[in-house]
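Bit of a strange request maybe. I'm writing a small parser for structure token strings and I need a real example to test against, not something I typed by hand. Could someone generate the tokens for this chain?
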Amino acid sequence: MALKLGDTAPDFEADSTEGRISFHDWVGDSWAVLFSHPKAFTPVCTTELGYMASIEPEFAKRGVKIVGLSVDPVEKQEGWAVDIEETQGTAPNYPIISDADFNVSKLYGMLPADTAGDAADRTPADNQTVRNVFVIGPDKKVKLILVYPMTTGRNFDEVLRVIDSLQLTADYKVSTPAQWQAGDDVIISGSVDNEKAKELFGDWEEPRPYIRIVPQPSR
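Reply from user aminoacidic:
Good idea to test on real output. This should exercise your parser:
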């Protein structure tokens, strides 16, 4: 079955470019981003892995670990990393999981459960559904799932924006409106009644009784 928001992210062990990973242990008390790729040496994914490496410090500032995944053996990932550095200017500075046995892709609902065979015999088109971004919280729950087609590069600045929202709303009883950026006004959560809202936030703007707008709480 496909993963849903709020599900526990499946645990697994797998080889990676930085050694064997036991996923839940690797995440630890951090947030994590797992982003997947159908095959090594694919053009759009090459740009994505390079861009993620260039903005890795932004994720680290937020206490977020990055891990990539590709349906190929580790040696393919290591060779690909050379191309990524030469063409994108930044080599991956995070592990890339080898999913040559399709185990992680199947656990995360990206490939059918009956997928089998040699990964080398499969084309990127065979694995085109392995194009997901999963944001996972310290509680190991899935907080965000994005699915992209092979022809469209992912917007990882948007992933950072969502993580800012997820971390803010995990700490405060607020929600973030459309197009929100860190520092913008927020909306008091509907689960908070006016009496409690007064205690937590003081005054607020109220264009409608169900839309109560306050400055972003300090973090």
